[in-house]
Model the fold of this input.
Amino acid sequence: MSHRVMPALLALAAASAGTVAGAQTPQTQDAPNIAQLEQQATQLADIQAVKRLQRAYGYYLDRSDWDNIVDLLTDDATLEYGPAGVFVGKAHARALLYAIGYGKAGLRPQQLREHVQLQPVITIAPDGQSAQGRWRAIVLLGQFHEYARWQTGPYECEYRKEHGVWKISKLHWVETFTVPVAGGWKTRMTQSNVADRRLPAPDRPSSFVYDPWPAVSLPPYHYAGPDAIQPLNPAPAPRLKLSAAEAARRIGKLKWQVDRLDDQRQIEILQRTYGYYVDKNLWQQIADLYTEDGTLEIGGRGVFVGRARVLQYLKWLGKPEEGKLYDHTQLQPIIDVAPDGLSAKGRWRALIFTGGLNATSVIGDCIYENEYRKVNGVWRIAKLHAYFEMYSNLEQGWAQFAQPNTHPEKTLPPDLPPTSVYEMYPGTLVAPLHYQNPVTGKPVYPAMPQAIPAAVSDPNAELVALSRRLMRLQDTEAVENLQNAYGFYLDKWQWDSATALFAEGGTLELAQRGVYVGRARIRASLEDAFGPQGLHQGEVSDHAFYQPVIHIADDGLTAKARVRELSILGKYGVEAYIGGGTRENEYVKEHGVWRIKSDHLYLTYLAQYEKGWAHGALPAPGPSKTLPPDRPPSVDYQPFPAFQELPFHYPNPVSGKPVDFQM
Done:
């Protein structure tokens, strides 16, 4: 060991111990507590593990893979789906799930069950042994030539860490609605969604009693207010007396943990940015996200090898144009990073809303199984493989119409044939999982390398840097929690709770309505746009938030985020609407708590559901006549069928170039 390194390590040991022989120097007195940083890193990893657990549950539901779902549960777990009662323990959970699946595992022939998990609000208990989470499920159900249904509602879940492994201890899903695709949420089901199945008797009656749609209920939140939605609340950790060697080892391990957490965050930004670029046909910007030898395989068109061929394929898809919608959402990620931080794998889902004016309103679902590589310290896409699950349209619905899979094009032949030949719904769905069960399976990569990298020459400076990086990662989770909780409050017309998440001088700008300044005006504008506070029986106003790209400022006091929204709006028996948009928001940390500084929704499309965006597209509402805004709209634009060139708050994550819509 270098004679320069040893004194620094001894100083670190003194700083970590709090009391050692000899007085502390000013340099080491304020050194971060390594035990506290380790706890913070562990809880950040816990958040990712909980998210992985719930997302894997959703992917298993897609396949009616009941046994893998049961393996995610604690022995005493409870399952509660809608009003069916509470089922306690693995045996009863398995009995319920198999009954839902007509007595067997796996999908029936020509069956569709896409169970999308999004919008998490996750909080970890101070002891790090339990957690709570609120999620939104958007579900596409179908049996070809029999039925097609929408289903949506929130989950309130609990999780427990057992022997270092996170498991689900409580699954509670509350149904907002299950409705036929024909008519959507303007209509209702005349019988239960599982009326054709015989469910076992529950162990306990339902914990939350409510009537089905068009009745509207308010499922309880596990959080309340901006303070309660901070994701981490670690218990105080004592300062430890460490030898120089032990201090060096623990710093190396901590740095490795922080590096891997940051790798996952960068990969999420990369893939989510890909989706936002696809929306706008930014083909050159997408090609810049690839490695030089990267591959692209979309549906059944074969494999295109190398960045130049990827760009050629993308340009073949066409230029942006008026009257064309292509919302290419990216959600439900499960990411695994190699121990050396140089490669990774990721599973994603894309709900796709596309089509043309006066043509058809196309809706699709696909699964990505991708690979990534770090090149010169920057993550890039090394392999993008999209498996088409289902493509249909709102005009006919997926009970009556489903597009066949694509095949290699004669006008643009691939470099390699498709890696697998399959038919999407109503055929067999084959997208493989790159990972095993998060509870019972082996990890994709070893959890940690055999040898932890050596600490740097100045351990105190390294601890300060790691503390700053951990806080930025924690800030990212806090901002995501904040935004997602805000969406859940909007769903139920909870204006007091929603506006409490804003900074005192915060602003709200929704879809060309103009800018409202301050909490009181924001609250008034929400009432003006959506009606009075409190549940609106027979109405739905769901605001699904996902695909966040969050950047925290270097000082940790402000942040910006790009967030996608799917809006499900309407009144039973009157009208149903569907819309999509992108929020470019700003946030501020006040007294250690994150709040919304500016919430700005850019409306991509809004349509009468039964006509779809192809035939029922609506203009932006414009400034209110009953409650004029404090300032006019900050950007002049119109939604689909217009093509929007709206701002990104961040440059290309690989090239560093700003978005150029003319490329």
